[in-house]
Amino acid sequence: MAYSFLSRFRVKADRDADFVKLCREMEGVVHLEPGTLGFKFFRLDEPGMFAVYESFVDEAADKAHQETDHGRPIIVVFRWDVRNPSLPVWSQAFSTDEGKTWEWNSINVSERVRSP
Fold first, then answer.
1. pLDDT of 46-60, one tens digit each?
2. b/e per residue 62-75 (b: at least 16 CB within 10 A)
3. C or N: which end of the chain has fewer Cβ atoms within 10 Å?
4. In what order do the strands lie in the sheet with 103-109?
5. What is the Cα–Cα distance from 4 to 45, expressed in whole angstroms?
6. In this structure, what CATH number is given to the domain that contains residue 10?
7. Are residues 49 and 8 in the same domain?
8. In the predicted model, what is the mean pLDDT of residues 21-43?
9. Residues 88/110, Cβ–Cβ less than 8 Å
10. What is the reported pTM?
């Protein structure tokens, strides 16, 4: 049975062109990996949103893909800041160097409202 999944994610507007270029490069090499059935990036209708479909013959082939240079892991951290309980802030950052450096790429300020 195939080992497949679909992931959705947002890319910062100023990184869009770089991201699309990297997607095409990855699509050009991943199909050469043993055990790859499919690998394709898609731009979604919502601005900055993308998806990637990945399919491998089994979990071992997916693991082998993740261990390639182009499949290296990204660490993601999510953080809630509730110092102001009326305006909690959720943010996320990515690291591609095992947490030595972080790129904060999403910040969401929420507002609590009272029920009527």
1. 999 999 999 999 999
2. bebbeeeeebeeee
3. C
4. 75-81, 89-95, 103-109
5. 23
6. 3.30.70.100
7. yes
8. 89
9. yes
10. 0.57
